[in-house]
Every structure is written in structure tokens, then in C-alpha cells.
# Entry
Amino acid sequence: FGGYLMTVIALAIPLALYTPYVSVRIALCAVASTAFSALLFTLSRASFLGMIGMAVVLGLLSRSRVIWFGLLLFVAVHQFILPEEVFQRINYTFQSASGKEVILPFTIPFVGDTIQVDTSTFERIDVWTKVLHTWTLDPYHFFFGWGVTRMQILDSQFARFLIEIGLVGTMLFGFVLWTIFRSSYWLTQNAESWVVRGFSIGYLACFIGVLIHSLGTITFYIVRIMEPFWFLTGILFWWYVRERILYETGEDPDEVQKRAWQPDLPWRQVDA
# Structure
């Protein structure tokens, strides 16, 4: 549910930023505030990480001082406005009593080369050991995977991809993600309408947030997240095609598409 709320917030903020209508801006800000309040009480750490990435992307793409000021203000006062349950959930991750030790690939100042994490976080890290182990069993399955539900990997999307559909399938899906990223980024830089620009910036921020979210859960298998995500992806590419036609030809996209669907075939020609 946290991934769905993150999508709502990512779209509402840039649209509120670019809309010329005050009433629309107020309504979108109310939607974003309500969704953020609900997101906090999901206590989903993957959603919290996704929100951080989403907020940074919003600030970078919009180049808005309002967003950066809001982020800095939130960092300054977050200890006074966030619910106590959120701090307890985050602190629970680094418990030392009943947690498990993780060896870090490098030494962190004031932390060392090992940390204690709870069992849930440990499983999300240790799952990559399972991936490396299954790759040594059979070269064929290394490339093409073991099939759906082969291993009990619940909370890491790309680790599960590598085991279920192999390196080839994961690379093909990565190509789909790269195409989405490239197209949405182009739209953020070239869109003229405030609706298209706000939507494309919000979508790209949501896209990055979803990728970060998938590090801690099987985001691309969760229907309530993927239904709106792929629906919004379809809208994005519809706008992308239209804006690309306008950018490259300067013609009305409707007229260009009409000619593409109604070619000048021989039996359509009528002598004057």
C-alpha cells in the first residue's frame, strides 16, 4: 500500500507546482498531505526509502526552490512532527539484542565494518547469497532461470527475477525499464503543457521511488501498485508519442496519426 501512496504523492506535488489554477493547487496539496500521513502509518521501510529517492528526483527535475525549501524544513523539524511509531520502526532495524550481524564491504566511520540488523532486514541482504548459490548449480538456469516460485524469496524483486527468469529475462526487463526512463526524462525536458510537464516529472519521480521500493519487496508483483503504475505508463507514452511528433515535425499530432492510420492506398484514389 505504501508504494501506491508514494505514486499519488509523486504525481500530486509537481502538478500542484505547475498548475496555474489556485483551486487545483490547493486540492492537489490536500491529496498529497493526506497520502503522506497515511504513508507514515504503513511503517513500511521500503516505502520510506522510496519516498526519499522520489523527493530528491522531484527537486532535481523541477528545480523548484519550494520543493527544496520544503525538504530542508522537513529535515529540520521531522523529530517534532513524525509519529513515535515511525522512529520505533526505523530504530528496530538496527537492534543489537536479537538481530543478526552483517559484514559490510567497507568500513563506515563511527560504525565499523559490521552492523546488527533485525532478521527481516538480514533476509533482504542474505537473499543475494541464495542468488549466487543457485547460479552455480546449472549454467542453463543461470541464463534462463528456474521458473516462478522456484525459491522462497519474498522480499527482493530483482533477486527474485534473477532466480525465476534468469539473467536473460532480467536484462530484457531492464531494457523495458531503461526505455521508460529515457522516454519519461525526454518528456520532462521538452513538454510545453503544464499538465504534461507536471505529470512526466511526477511519473519519473514515482518510477525511481518504485525501483528503490523494489529493493525491499516484490513491488512488480503487487497488483495494487502495478495496476496504477502501468496505467500511468500507458498515459506517459501516449503523451510521449504526441510530443515527439510535434517536436520533430512541427505538425499537429492528430493529423499525423490520421495519415498513418489512413494511408493513400490505390483503391482510395479517385480521379479528378
User: Anything to note?
Assistant: Residues 153 and 204 are 28 Å apart (CA to CA).
